[in-house]
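Exercise 7.
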Amino acid sequence: MGLLEGEFSRTVPDHTTANILALYQEVDWLTHVISQVICSYLKQEGHEEHWIDIEPPPVHPGSSHYADIVIEWKLDIYERLALALAMAPAIRPDSLDLFFGLNGMIDRPFTEFGGVSDRTYSGFVPTGQTLNFLISANNPEWHARTLSILSSQHRLMAEQVTELLPTESGIPGLAGVYRLTEHWLNYFVTGEQHRPELSSSFPAHPLDTPLDWSELVLEHSVMSQIEEIRAWLSYGHTLMHDWQLAHKVKPGYRAVFFGPPGTGKTLTAALLGKSTGRQVYRVDLSMVVSKYIGETEKNLSRVFDAASYKDWILFFDEGDALFGKRTEASSSNDRHANQLTGYLLQRIEDFPGTVIVATNLKRNMDEAFTRRFQNMVHFTMPGPEERLQLWKNAFHNVCELADDVELKQIANNYHLAGGQIINVLRQCALTAIRRNERTVYHQDLVTSIRQEFKKDNKLVV
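Solution. The predicted structure, written as tokens, is:
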């Protein structure tokens, strides 16, 4: 009994039934393609016909989640074939049984069909070689199409829709299992959106903030530079295409935020995304940097490849760990570090989106990077006016200030960054809670400020 027959079709939502039906139709088309490719390859009756003339199922907007992806991503017939092959074992395993045919000359399976077998699974499991056979067995010049679809830069791979599993050392890469990932199969069937970039293995995670743009407090000249970045995010597409600036400059925008901790670099990056309707992804350096040669580049590639198809802002915090100055290549480690710096430089230059690199010290950055950034924003310690506004914003709707608290005096007397002021707020609020009240007194503030200054070995008079 098929998946859409019997009780099942009466117990699932209509949209799920439509989604599954679309996948079945796509795999049915795949079966006809496989039959024709093998027929043409073995010069059997009807070999003069070509698989590319077998029309895939029509897709219409809204008819299924699979159809919507095909339309939105403008997948061509080769990409649809790859996607159908990857999903076949999960949808209709028997659709691949034709690959179990034996080569009569040597009485063993056809090597060119690829595929792997497993004692726990009786069906045919496709590999990259299987896809290559379908695409280029009768047109060797189309082998490049296979390599393009299987490259990490291709959208199906970058968005982690499909994956080519790694092989053991010495085994051709195309011999790896080629499959549809579980979360995308679930999306195609149920419509439940999964964001693979939120998985524990993805080396970047969303950067959000509950604050709004109006709450961003920066010195005037700094704010002017930030507004320039915001303008690019809002009007960059118009500038590049309508004004045809794409003929003169590289795509994307690159900025460095540098300055002491707590001066608003991370918050500004988050608000730039929030105010322009973009996701900001903080690159997790602990998951990116590896002691093994080549692994750091591979981890970074996953981020850039995925982000190239989305309108993300990539935020590299503590960026000097990746973008630090190059050294004299006196050892293999130095050479590897310099190669990594060169790799990063190239990927950032080619990235069509927005990259923000934050560092506490500008002098730690490699000049080869800084020359290629459109904006170098120095986040200075806030002055008295900015500090006063930060104090007001911090305590607004949180605590009541006693009559002995003069925020203007506090702002003038104590040179604190925004992050430090939030730490003081937290400590004062806890002190008030322990007294079972919401009121914060002058002495509470001084005590909390003193604790904050101790972190930097500073004294409060």
